Every structure is written in structure tokens, then in C-alpha cells.
Amino acid sequence: MKTILHKAASRGHTNLGWLDSHHTFSFGSYYNPERIHFGALRVLNDDSVAGGKGFDTHPHDNMEIVSIPLSGELKHKDSTGNQTVIKEGEVQVMSAGTGIFHSEYNNLTETEVKFLQIWVIPNKKNVTPRYGQISLKPIQQENTFYQILSPNEDDQGVWIYQEAWFHLGSIDTGTSANYNFKQEGNGLYIFMLDGEADVDGQHLEKKDGYGIWETDKVTINSTSKARILLMEVPMY
Q1: Domain boundaries, the chain
Q2: Please, what is the end-to-end C-alpha distance for the chain in angstroms?
Q3: Alpha-carbon distances, residue 144 vs 135, 158, 203 (angstroms)
Q4: Which fold has domain 138-234?
Q5: What is the DSSP string of 105-158?
Q6: Per residue in 24-39, pLDDT tens?
Q7: Beta strands of 136-216 (E only): which ranges?
Q8: Tell me, which fold does domain 11-135 have in CATH?
Q9: Dihedral-angle region of residue 29 (phi above 0 means left; psi in -120 to 50 means alpha; beta otherwise)
Q10: pTM for the full model?
Q11: Cα distance between residue 220 and residue 211, in whole Å
């Protein structure tokens, strides 16, 4: 088993006043040659956007883009005609494919919106751009990891063009939860949204990231009430 630890304080940081962003991997003006990606996981940004502010219309292509609101409301508009608001308890996916333009704004004027912006390198290029959004409330479970993303259109959660699986878990203090890898050769990147936990002997705290590969399962023991995002991706 191989591992890599990214402590929360070691992340890149951008503060533009209206945007406060922490970068697990190289992004924008933050560049670290040792932190370009974890397998197909290319970007993991932890963003806070001030009330009424946001990202003007800009392009993407050939990237799977996942947004997970942690609090507040995020307004999305794109060149395929989608105009929606996503909130905590929902997840959004966009396959940029041959090219898409979109904007993202805080839908509220008095409250920050906090969300994760995640990019996954696709296994198929130049697809027709598409958009998806779901509520997680019907599939949420306690003290286990429930699937929110997969490669399969008919499976639970949203889907992307990559052999990747994302799971969320809210784990009570003193509880153990196992995760079994879906595909041989994949790696698992664990991101602590809240709380603390031990992962096969490694202690993790809020906003720490921990990559594991060359194994087929992990055991996570919460040492406080914890909320955890698991991202299984190919390691090529």
C-alpha cells in the first residue's frame, strides 16, 4: 500500500477578497510540481465566495467538473441552456467535452457560499457537453459511505466519463466504516470535510487530504463526529 498526506495548512491559497480558495493541487497562480494531481483527480478546490459575487462566464473543455455545495447557494448558467441553483445537499456535474462556457455566482447577497470544485480527467475526449444535478437527500445514510458519483448513467448518483466513484459519509464518534475499492488499479483520495478520523493508522483532521493506492480496501475510524468525501479514481 502506498500513501500520500496533504495537511490542510499545506494547501495553496488564493484570496481575492470576494473569493477565498484553498487548492489541494496546482491551480491558477498556485503551482507545486509535487502536487499536480492524484491519478485522474486533477483539481480539488475548497472555495468561499462572498455574497452576490462569483465567476464570470469562462470556457472549459475535455474535463469532468463536479461541484458540491457545503453551505449557501450557488447559481449556475452555461452555454447549453442550463440555469440552475445548487444548494447544500446537492451535487452538480458538467462534462465539458468539446467545449462549454459557464458562470457561477453566489445566489445570495448577504451570505457566503462554500463549495468544493473538483475536476476529473475524462477517459473520453470531445464528447457532447452535458449537465447533471441531483439531490442527495433520498440516498443519504448514516455511519456508512453512500455513492454520489460513478461511471454508470443508471447507477446511484451523478455520472462522469471516467472509471471513478465518489462516496460521502457522516460517521459518528467511535464508529468504523470500511470502503472496498470498485476497480483494481484505482486509488482513493480521502478529504475530511469535518471532524477527525484515523485511516489505517493515519490521523486526519478537518480539510486534510490523504491518498491511498495499491490496496483494495481501507478502514476509517472516526475519533469525532466526521463528514468525509471519498474519491476513487484511476491512477494512470
Answers
A1: 11-135, 138-234
A2: 16
A3: 18, 19, 19
A4: Jelly Rolls (2.60.120)
A5: EES-SSS-EEEEEEEE--SS-SPPPEEEEEESGGG--BSSEEEEEES-TTSSSE
A6: 999 999 999 999 999 9
A7: 145-150, 158-159, 165-171, 176-180, 186-194, 197-199, 202-204, 209-213
A8: Jelly Rolls (2.60.120)
A9: alpha
A10: 0.97
A11: 13
Give the pLDDT confidence of 129-148 residue by residue, as tens digits. Answer: 999 999 999 999 999 999 99
Sheet of strand 19-23: strand arrangement? 12-15, 19-23, 41-49, 113-120, 64-71, 90-95, 130-135
Report the C-alpha gap between 9 and 11 in whole angstroms. Answer: 6
Residues 232 and 41: their CA atoms lie apart, in Å, by 9
Do the first three CATH levels of 11-135 and 138-234 match, i.e. the same topology? yes
Given this model, what pLDDT does residue 236 score?
84
Q: DSSP labels for 72-86?
A: SEEEEEETTS-EEEE
DSSP 9: G
The pLDDT of 85-100, averaged and rounded, is 97
Q: Copy the grid coordinates of residue 198.
A: 484515523
